[in-house]
Structures are given as C-alpha cells and as structure tokens.
Amino acid sequence: MTLLMVETRRTDETFGELWLAWRREHGLPAPSAHHGAEALFDHFPFLLWEHFPAVTLGAARRIALAARAHGMASGLRDARVRGGGEASTTGAARAWLRDLARRRLEPIIPPGDRYWRLLADDRGPRGLPSWSDLPHATAAAFAVCGGDPALLPAVQESQTHLYAGLALYRDCVRWKRDFLAGYRSEVVGPLLDALGGTSAPDTLGTSEPDTPGTSAPDTLGASVLDAFGSASGAAEREARLPDAARVLHYGGVAERALDAAAEHLARSMAAVTDLPPVSFAAMLARLYGDVLRLRSDLAETRARHLGPARARAAVRSRPPAAARLDDMSDMSDMSEHPVRVSVAHMSENPVRVAATHTSENAVRASDAQMSEKAVRAALAHMGGEQYADGHFGDFLVLTQQSTSWATGYVGWNLAHAGLRAPALDAAARWLVENRAPGGGWGYNGHWPADNDSTANALMFLIDRPGVDRALLEPALDHLLATQAPDGGFTTVDDLSAWLVRFRAPTDDAPGWTTPHPCVTAMVALMLSRVGGDRATAAADAALTFLRRCQRPAGYWDAYWWVGGLYTTCRAVQALCAVKRESPDAGGTLARAAGWLLRSRRADGGWSGGHREGSGAFQTALAVQALCALRDDHHDHHDREALERAVAGGVRWLAGHQLPDGSWPVEPVLRVPRPDVVEPWRDVTWTESILGLDIVVPDWRRLFTGAAAVHALRRATGPLSRPTLEHALKGER
C-alpha cells in the first residue's frame, strides 16, 4: 500500500469518527455508505499533494481533512437539492462541517489570506455550480501552504474539468432516481424536453445556495417538487419512466452527456500535461475509461435494438462534445480553457494555394462556396482550441496530450493550405522556443525527441518567414543522421527512454526500431522543401524506400496510424513534390491513384482500417492525395476521374461538418507494442489512453480539422478577400 493510500485511509477514518460523534450528539443515525463514497464530493486531496511537494505531511493531513469535511457539506447540499435529506438537519450539519474545515486550516493559512474568501463563498468561482468550489479550495490551500502559486491555475483548471465530468457522469448513472424525485438534472432535462414534459422554471437547480446564517436549506425542497409537476406528480413520473428510459438509451441523451463528460476529463488531463506525471493523472485515466466503457455499452445496446444502419447514422449525426453543454445545461462556462489566440485574422498566401481547375468535372462553384463556409467554421473552432502562448494540443497517450507534435502538424497543414495569421506566427515562436535538447521535438516537452515530431515541426518552420533557419539546423542534422541504410526512417531514436516511459514488457523492440513507411513519407515530404545536396540525397533515398514498400494494390501501410490512407497521402505528396524523374515514378503514382479511386465509398468519402462508414480524417487525407495527383506534372492520370473523386470528397467533408466547425473523430492513432513489426495485420485494438496496443482519437478534433482545411483549400483554391475578412470576424 502506498503512502498516499495509507494517508487517505487515515483521513477517512479520522473524519468518520468526528462525523459520527457529531451525529450521535444530535440524535442522528450513522451516516449511510452512499454519502461517504460520493465521488463527486471527494476531491482526492492526497493526489493533489503530489503537485505541491513543498507542503509538509502535517499540513497535507490538515488540508485533506478539511477537504473531506468540505466535500461532505457540499454532498449534503446536493442531496437536499435533489430531494433527499432532512431540511431541519442539513443546514446545521453543513454549518458544522464548514466550521470543522476552517478550524483545521487556521493553523496553516494566515488569517488575512485571500484564501478565506474562497472558502467562505459557497457558490463556487465565476458563478459555476456549487460543487466547483471544492477543487478550487483544496488546490488553493496546497498552493498557499507550499508557497508555489504558479502551479495553481493549471491544477485548478484540471480540477474544474474533472468535477464537471464527474457531475455529468453521475447524472447519467443516477438518472432514474433524479427523474422519480422530480429533479431536472443535466440528463433528466433533455429527457423531459424529448418527452414533451412541462418545462421547469429557469432557476431550477441554479438557485443561490445557502450561506451561513440564512434559512435557504429549509426551502430547497420546494424547487425540487416544482421541477415538472408538483409532489402529486410522482405517479405521473412513475408512469412515464419506461418512456424516459427508451429516450435515454435510444435517443442519444445519455451518449451526449457521456461525450461531454469524457471531453471534460480529457481537458482535465490536458491541463496538467506540462506538470510532472503523478498519480492524479492515473486516477483521471481510470475515470475516463469508466466513462468510455459506459458510452460504448450504451452504443452497443442501441445498435442491437435499432439495427446497425440506424445506430451508425444516429452516432454520426450527434453533436460534438464541445457543443453539448449549450443544449444540455447552463454550465457552458465550464468548458473554458486558456485559448485566447485566434486562428482568425487570416490573409492569403498565394504561393501556397494550388490553382483551381475549370474542366467540366471540376469542383462546382456551389461546392467551392460550401468549402469556403466549412473552412471558416473550422478555423473558428481551431482558433478556440489554441492556447494563449500559441501552441496546440491534441490526442492523449499515457494521460498526456501532445503539444510539440500537434503544434507542428496543425501549423504546417494550415500554412500549406494557403493561410497565414498571427496565430500561426505564435505557434511557430512557441515551437522554436520549446526545442528539445539537441534541437528536435517530441510528442510533448516531457517525451524524448522523435523523428516524426521533428519532421512535422520542421515542415512548419523550415521556410516560415521570421524563423532563423540556423536554429533549425541541429534538428535537421540529427534527423538526417538517423536515416537507415535502406533509406527509411524510424520514429524512435532513444529507445531506452521510450521503453521506460511506456513501461514496456520487453526490451525486444524491432517494431519501434525498424524504419516505418509513415514516418519515412513524412520526412521525405519535409526534405523536399529543404533544398541542398544532403537533404536532396536523403529525400531521394527515402523515396526509393517508399517505392519498395508500396503494396501491389497501390497503397502504403502505416505503423502508427489506422488504415493505409495516412502513409499513402504523405507518400504521394512527397513523390509529387520532388520534380525529378525516376524510372518507376509514373507506375508508383498510377498505382496509388488507382487504389485511391477504388477505395472511395459510395457516399463519396473514405474509411480507414475495418471501419464500416466513411471518416473525416481519412477522407481529408484522400482528398489531399488526389489533389496532389491531379496537379502532378506527370501525365499519366485519369484527371477527370481524379476531379470527380475530389469533388465528391469536398461535398462529403462539407456535409459532415459539425455545428461547432469541427468534424466527428474516431481512433486514428495506434500505439503498438515495441515487438510488433506489422501492426496493420492485427484488427483488434483497444481504445484507451493507457498502455500499449491501443488506438486513440484526436479528442480536440484538431488533427482531423487541420487535415480537412488543408484538403478543402487544396481542392477548391483560395478564399476570396471579402469572404476571408468575414472569417476573420468569426462569422459563419
């Protein structure tokens, strides 16, 4: 048993004794196990302690006990609001619990510290739901005692999203109890709307919580009974329960709430990515997994009862998690995160934009207008996800989001789509300032540098105005030095660091150390833009490697990506970018074009791996590759067929964009064990953010969005200046 577990048990035992003694003194029965185990009101104080190592054990114990008392007080209030508990005792109990928390903290927090105002404000920060003050108060206590306020914003943001996710998850699990009690929770509310029930008052569930010295606890029950109908409506609610269950399970209500919960938990992990990995992240990962499993179980249930086709259509059409709170609750402020630099303020970069074609099969004017609208909406979404210092984050592997790799990928896709903006300048500055020792880049700042992350960053920076190329030379030199004799590039350079990070079960790592077609194609594409004899020779060797790796059907396998479209797209782009003839250049590209055309689905999109429906990421990659072939200098392609496929892909992307400007995502990144050499032969992968042999979605939807913007702009050409100016203002 770890020290944290021992201390947690000790805190629970101490608090339990004090709480039981108070209840006996007031003639109350022993507390139920339910109140002692409510996860939403147990803010894991000893896990937070890991972020503030300067805090002594004695102070940590005091903070933990105060947090336990504070959590119980909030739990009692929540139970009262939801129709449980005695009004005559809840107020007194909460007052005693808050006083207990204060007495525990007084010896370690100065009397005049601003912390006390936070503890006294039972409404939570920024008008958020009442439970949100728990994590803020606990984290703030650690920061005050540890004298390290710099960590507080990231920890509090993480805690805020944690409890927002827990609240939604809890509402899904206990929806039936809330429905029968007449409480309009974040899940019951949409159920009532779908059932056509009586609307609840706007103030339901958001009334001002009680503060010391008021009688609010005695009147909270009234608003509960007014939720839909009165106390006499219990029989009606009981009768409508089967209908509510059908709406919950088959109408997508629960799935949307769980999508929202999962996104909040993902944002919670992302907020502390730049802090050292601790047990708190592992706890978040477990909670995230619980939400995903429940979400998957609901989807399977719906699929069995509605039929596969209807279920897939319903899942594809559901709103994104980012838009979920707008129509499910009044908690939309909970989705705030430090993203203040906008990708708006775009201006044309005519050097980057491919010419549009005017043949009878070219993208129609109406398609181009759809594309422009989709690009503007996508840029608004991505701008909202960019951090204030300029970087982007996406994916979650080992509970950490990618920053360096994600920033390079998003940056070069937007730049090569013909866009330039202050936001991209900020992203470039961030990348330059956050190089790894030796000059390269890794998945994020905690991970060792790798060739794929370095290639994506260099692709963005190598010819970007204002970037000193001399600062990039060490990374380029190191990358070129890792090229294998056969011309290929692997991902991992420092194998031992990767094995330790993943706690790999074996040090036999042929899969991680063998050259990968997907990485080699990305490096070759980047080298095609570098120039110079050494880079040119390395690019030629990489292209030779790729020609050898091409499958007879015309595609390339990917080590780190689901399906063959990622590698095929990058290989085609690299081959088309190099304006040097080779004996088999035409045949290689012709085979790739044939495979891309044959693999197109009837709906105009493309899919990856064994997925049944088309996907946005895969379709965007296919359109990018087809555009490269369409504009290629070799004259051996059926250009009319390419144009038709491009136009169909544009229409698919424009037609499947979500209301917030993003696209639906799916697990596209896979992380095989180090001894797996050919992961494309295995079709059984687990969606997770921990361990190996997993697949991961780009949860912020930035990789998919950047790929789609690149594809749409390459397919249809530049936005007109007036249209672009509207995009700058965020108009849809």
TrEMBL record:
<dbReference type="InterPro" id="IPR008930">
    <property type="entry name" value="Terpenoid_cyclase/PrenylTrfase"/>
</dbReference>
<dbReference type="Pfam" id="PF13243">
    <property type="entry name" value="SQHop_cyclase_C"/>
</dbReference>
<protein>
    <submittedName>
        <fullName>Prenyltransferase/squalene oxidase repeat-containing protein</fullName>
    </submittedName>
</protein>
<feature type="domain" description="Squalene cyclase C-terminal">
    <location>
        <begin position="468"/>
        <end position="664"/>
    </location>
</feature>
<feature type="compositionally biased region" description="Polar residues">
    <location>
        <begin position="200"/>
        <end position="217"/>
    </location>
</feature>
<dbReference type="InterPro" id="IPR032696">
    <property type="entry name" value="SQ_cyclase_C"/>
</dbReference>
<feature type="region of interest" description="Disordered">
    <location>
        <begin position="198"/>
        <end position="219"/>
    </location>
</feature>
